[in-house]
Design goal:
This protein has 74 residues and is mainly alpha-helical. It contains four helices and no strands. The chain has one domain (2-70). The protein has helices at residues 2-26, 31-42, 50-58, 65-70.
Length: 74
Amino acid sequence: GYAAGYYSYKWAEVLDADAFALFRERGIFDSDAARAFRECILARGGTEHPARLYRRFRGRDATIDALLERDGIR
């Protein structure tokens, strides 16, 4: 019910913050990061498990660190 929906919403925030952290690390207009996002996430969506696609893009699983930092908790 509500808890499952809320969890999925929060997990989407984790993925968003963690993916954007790569662009902050490399520079917002880094073409390699953009290409990896396009090829690993956008172009492949729905063809493999999302966690596998994300790992391929980021080189690791998502962590909550970027979200905590963005929200001023850390």
